[in-house]
Amino acid sequence: MDKLQFEFTILSGQDGKSNVYALTSISTQYNKIYDFPEDSQTVGLHKELIKTAAFAKVKNRLKTRHQVKTVWITMTSELLKVYVDVDGNMQFGDHFLEEIHDTEYFKQTEEKFALEKFTSRNTNAKVWIKTS
C-alpha cells in the first residue's frame, strides 16, 4: 500500500466541554473503509501519525466540534508497521480493524449529524442550535 486515507474528527472530550482530535476511520485506495473502535480514536495514541506534516495541517484546519477532514498520507515503513500487518490486514495495536460497508458508513455518518428534536424543554433556540 502506497498511501491510506485517514479521517480525522473533532469530538467532545469526556468532560463534555473540551474537544479531542480523533482518528475515526482509514480508507484504502481500493475504497475499503475501516472503522476505529472508540477506545482507539484519540490521536494521542497514534504517535507515528501525529508526527506527519499532513496531521499538522489537519490540526490547523479543524477548529470546531464535529468537523471532519480526510487526507491521504503516504505510508512510511513506521506507519505501515502500525496500521498494516505483514499480510495486508488493517490493524491498530493488537487488534484488526473492522471493515465498514457503504451502507453502514452512510448510517454512521447520518447518526453523527442527526440533531436532537427541538422541544419545549429547550427554551432558547439559539442555544439549542449551538449545542446540537
The DSSP helix count reads: 4
Radius of gyration: 17 Å
Q: What percent strand?
A: 25-35%
Instruction: Give helix and strand order, one letter per element, not per position.
Output: EEEHEHEEEHH
The number of domains: 1
Rounded to the nearest angstrom, the distance between the terminal CA atoms is 38 Å
Shape: elongated
Mean pLDDT over the full residue set = 85
Number of strands: 7
Write up what this structure looks like.
- The chain is an alpha+beta fold.
- It is built from four helices and seven strands.
- The strands form two sheets. A five-stranded antiparallel beta sheet has the order 4-1-2-3-7. It has a two-stranded antiparallel ribbon with strand order 5-6.
- Strand 1 and strand 2 (19-27) form a beta hairpin.
- The termini are far apart.
Brief rundown of the structure:
The chain is α+β, with helices and mostly antiparallel strands and 132 residues long.
List keywords for this structure.
132 residues; alpha+beta; five-stranded antiparallel β-sheet; two-stranded antiparallel sheet; 7 strands; 26% helix; elongated
Write the layout of secondary structure elements.
Blueprint: E1 3-12, E2 19-27, E3 33-35, H1 53-61, E4 68-74, H2 77-83, E5 91-92, E6 95-96, E7 98-100, H3 102-112, H4 125-131
Antiparallel strand pairs: 1-2, 1-4, 2-3, 3-7, 5-6
